[in-house]
Amino acid sequence: MSKALKFLIFLFVVLFLATGALLVVIVNADDNPAPWIAMLVRNHVIVFVWHLACWMLLGMFANYYWDLFNMGLGLEYMQVGRIVLPLLVSPIVFYPVYTLWLASTSQSYVLFDVIAFQSGFFWQALFTKAKPLEVNNPNNIPWSVNNGRGR
Fold this sequence. Notes:
Layout: H1 3-27, H2 35-42, H3 44-70, H4 80-103, H5 109-121, H6 123-128
C-alpha cells in the first residue's frame, strides 16, 4: 500500500471519528451549552451530512475489500484506481440518502448511518442495471419516442 493511500485512509478515519464525536457532543448538549457547542448545535446539519458521507464511503470501501478478500487476495493487492471509481460516483449515490434524511421526521441518526453504509456498499447495483438501449428491439424504445407504443 502506498504512502499516499495510507495518508488518505488516515484522513478519512480522522474525519469519520471527528464527525462522530461532534455528533455525540451535539446530541448530549444541555440547555445552556458553551458557545462552541451552541454553534455546533445550530449547524448540526453540516456535521451530520459529513458523517453520512463518511458512512457511505466506508460502505464503498467495505464493498471493495469484500470483493478483494473473496478473491483470496490481501490488502497488498489493493489498487488505487479501483478505489477512485466509487469516489467518482459517490455524489450520485449520496444524494438519495441525503434527501431521504431531509424528508424524514425520524430522530434516529443510526438509521440513516445504516442506510448510507448500505447505499455505499451496493453502489454497483445502481450502475449494473443501467445499460444502453437496444435500438433494434422496439420494446426498448422509450415511451415518448414511439408515441405510446411498446413497453
